[in-house]
Amino acid sequence: MAATFSILGTDVSIKGDLNATADLHVDGSVEGDITCAALVQGEKSTITGAIRAQSARLSGTVHGSIEAGELVILKSARIHGDVSYDALTIEQGAQVDGKFAHRVHAGEEPALTLVS
């Protein structure tokens, strides 16, 4: 089965939530939450809403929380919101205004262990 993906061009502006089982490439603007397998965001793109994706590669502006398994924040990205992730890469020059939290899955040891 061929991989499928959807592209929202620079001239596309959407108000409302997006749910995609395929990969999503956003170059336009979205006002709403995005849930998808993999998200690629273009440099001139603006997303206002929460992002949930197995993987996300962000290079535009995001106003909202981000939850991703593999997250790449490129140098042109401007993130305004909290970020939770499994694996994280941030290019030098990226701007993030929010908290970072590594997700802990069932069966994993917590990141912090108290010793008396």
Automatic annotation (TrEMBL):
Q: What name does UniProt use for this protein?
A: Cytoskeletal protein CcmA (Bactofilin family)
Q: Which species is this record about?
A: Novosphingobium hassiacum
Q: What is the lineage of its organism?
A: Bacteria, Pseudomonadati, Pseudomonadota, Alphaproteobacteria, Sphingomonadales
- Tell me which domain of life the UniProt entry assigns to the organism this sequence originates from: Bacteria
Q: Which Pfam family is an annotated match for this chain, by its short name?
A: Bactofilin
Family, similarity comment: Belongs to the bactofilin family.
